[in-house]
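We treat protein structure as text, and this decision shapes the records that our systems exchange. We quote a single record here, exactly as it is kept in our systems:
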Amino acid sequence: MELPKTRYTVVWHVLFWIGYLILLNSVYAGIGDFKLSFIRNFITTCFHAFLAYFNVYYLIPNYFIQQRYKRYYFFIILMLSIVTPLRVFLDTWLITDVDKMPVEFFSLPHYANSIISSLVTLMISGSFRSWQQRFKTIQLQQELKNYRLEAELKLLRTQVNPHFLFNVLNNIYVLAYQGSKETAPMIAKLSQMMRYMLASSDVEQVDLEQEIAYLHDYIALQQLKTELPQSIDFQVIGDVRDVKIAPMLFIPFFENSFKHGNIADTNKGWMKSRLSVNGKEVAFSIVNSLPIVAPQKDSVSGIGLDNVQKRLQLLYPKKHQLNIQADQKTFSIDLKLQTN
């Protein structure tokens, strides 16, 4: 552990030991000569400061933390064996008049008091060092956790774009193969959406208005797949201004509906979606029809939905409710989340 380097830290250390010296003088005020008492307390403070810093910055990092306990306690005993007689010697040396020298200076309680005060200093400094180390460990663990979550979110976000591109490029390929005149408009729409995807790839949150505009573009892109209009109803309710949300959060729900539903069937297929804002709560729902031979829920919930569920757990822990239901005719998703 490095010694304090900033002036701010040094000032606080100096103020602490000044306060410690004032405390000692307050405790022993009125006992004997004030000048002599002050000098003794000053020497005691210096000894205790030496013990504290030597313990915190040398013994604990080099021996105790390294689990070299025998050497650690050996040096503790060695320090006490040196410091205690030295402190007693200085106490006697300060009094020039032998007749005025207190008898207790040569008594066992005087030595015991010196040892006990030194042990208390070592214990307090050691506890402080342990607390400091524990605090830094918790802080480091939290930083590692944040880095891990950030890395996982980046990985999940990179999975969104290829999944989306795979679906859209497949649609463009079909149109191009058929020689459809809608191929060029579809590519232009895709280019517009790609700009948004790139702009939102490095940010944690985007305006909900932008996300909604992106969803409208996606629906319009899907509409180009059929000559007749598809039965798609997407409603936005409430004031979406100044509302922030994680980017690309709703698109996997729409991708899932278009991929596994029968929306392309302009006679029987349909999809209804609703997004409402009430204060900090955003409620989203989407339901679509399924083919006559409806797939099971596990087959409907593909990579996109697994991805968005993980992102919700990371971005909105305990702030979202996601409900996915499927039967033979319909597949529905309901999501409620609290924005920041």
